[in-house]
Predict the 3D structure of the following.
Amino acid sequence: MFGFLKNNFVFTHADSKQVVSGFTGESVTDEMSLEAYSRDASAFRVVPKKVWYPKNTEDVVALVVLCDKEKEHDENASLTVRAGGTCLSGGPLNAGWIVDMTKYMKKIHIDPIAQTATVEMGAYFRDIEDAALEHGLMFAPYPSSHRLCGIGGMIGNNASGEKSLRHGATIDNVLELTVVLPSGEVVTMGPRSISSVDLLREKEVLSLFEKYGQALQRAAGDVRKVASGYRLDKVVSGEMFNEAALFVGSQGTLGVVTQAVLKLVPVPQFLELLVISAQTLHDLGEVIELVRAYNPEGLETFDSNTFKKAEIYLKEHADRMHAYIDPNAHLFILVQLSESTKQETEAQAVRCHDALRDKGYFVRHVTTETDVASLWQIRRNSLLLIRDHNEKGYKAVPCIEDVIVPIVSLGVFLEKLGSILTRRKIEYGFHGHIGEGSFRIIPVFNFNSPSVAEDIIELMREVFVLVKEVRGNISADHSDGIIRTPFLEEFYGAELCSAFKRIKDIYDPKNNMNPKKKVGGDIAFLTQSLDRE
Ligand SMILES: Cc1cc2nc3c(=O)[nH]c(=O)nc-3n(C[C@H](O)[C@H](O)[C@H](O)COP(=O)(O)OP(=O)(O)OC[C@H]3O[C@@H](n4cnc5c(N)ncnc54)[C@H](O)[C@@H]3O)c2cc1C
């Protein structure tokens, strides 16, 4: 249905088999392949020099070591790892080498007793999902792109989704990582006692945590999910030290993750869905608080602009919704309930429904499986509906799409944001993981305008000031990439950004790994990389 992302797979011109000592994979440099790897799902295009396909961790070590050698005669040599290429921030795009894990490194092993999955970083989420489902289990951070993205990118971005309300983001569900550091060393990371910290690198991280951990936590806002910067504040929990917390969400800037052990949870057995038609944004925070008291399993939203597009491009699904919604509503909120028995789930849905109705909200219980599936289809395709159907010359640009704010501020924040967009005459669509205060507002820009880059930057600057005012964060789960790295200093301040730089220097002193992301990115790189085609 949708003309979707440029895919990773362009293997027709493998131009080398054994060019690096010990490397058993392949590489390509033909124009068509480089073009395919020049884009992800963001608004950027950066053409790489070469694409590598490693077969195992040893191959990744060989590439990391070779990249380091290259640096001796090419100061721009770099290595950027890529999985599904669905990133919305430009994370897997860079001008040096790209390492695509998805051709070979795809092993998945499910342990149904321990409820874990041991996976290689080229595995697609859909394959992990299908393998876990055979045992009634799932990996809970479940992005809307779950049939498209890879586990490497989920770890790289600290992805989350409709099931994070109960189970948290990727960072909360990773038990262990195997990482190739820029030095070529292979390290296994996971929680262990602080008293066992003895390596220089770990001691340095620990002392940075002691110095900056609390300040970083305060600056990150009063929110449940954060994907901006490095999660230095998470490397210590109680008496445990966990270096993996720095690597989740680091966008491959500190090393290449090659394998992970993931925590799985049982798939909910009993589900009931309510849909609320909200007329105004003002009391959104109150509605969400009210619903959250009923322990929802999912709490998601999309707006009337998205629904209008669904009426054209997902007509069959939109038609089914009419029985449940007020077509004049501004926002539709999906409330999924799940308890341990069918009876209790149904009773909880009735209680939640009645509480909403008694407060005067327009709410309906979605009664058939087909209708439930249709509603989720619209929600999960919301981003594509907004992104892929615009007038010629106009493009939806993910830039402020990943803000997250405290639930209490939701209504006020959204009203102010709406005023900013209206004043700037910017069209937008709105959807997201509203139960956690995280939502996607995707503004549409005129790419025929010579000031398009300035328009995007000015909007971001104005919105991020508002986000900071309400103690939110500029990224819940799409991370910084090309689009948000230049704004980290304005958001976190110079001192915390110097701590980010110190982290980068501890692991990657020569800046070999995905340069200009998290650290060292600037507005010039953003502007040059904007895909104007
Ligand atoms: C339609 C659509 C809906 C989406 N919905 C959601 C959503 O609900 N929630 C959400 O969180 N995101 C969402 N996204 C964004 C994106 O799908 C996620 O961030 C996803 O996790 C990226 O995975 P990927 O495999 O495509 O990563 P890629 O795009 O390949 O890479 C993402 C980042 O991870 C790094 N990386 C990749 N592999 C490794 C590795 N082995 N080691 C270290 N770093 C690595 C890359 O360098 C890059 O910086 C959506 C995107 C689209 C297009």
Residues 108-266 form a domain with the Uridine Diphospho-n-acetylenolpyruvylglucosamine Reductase; domain 3 fold (CATH 3.30.465.10).
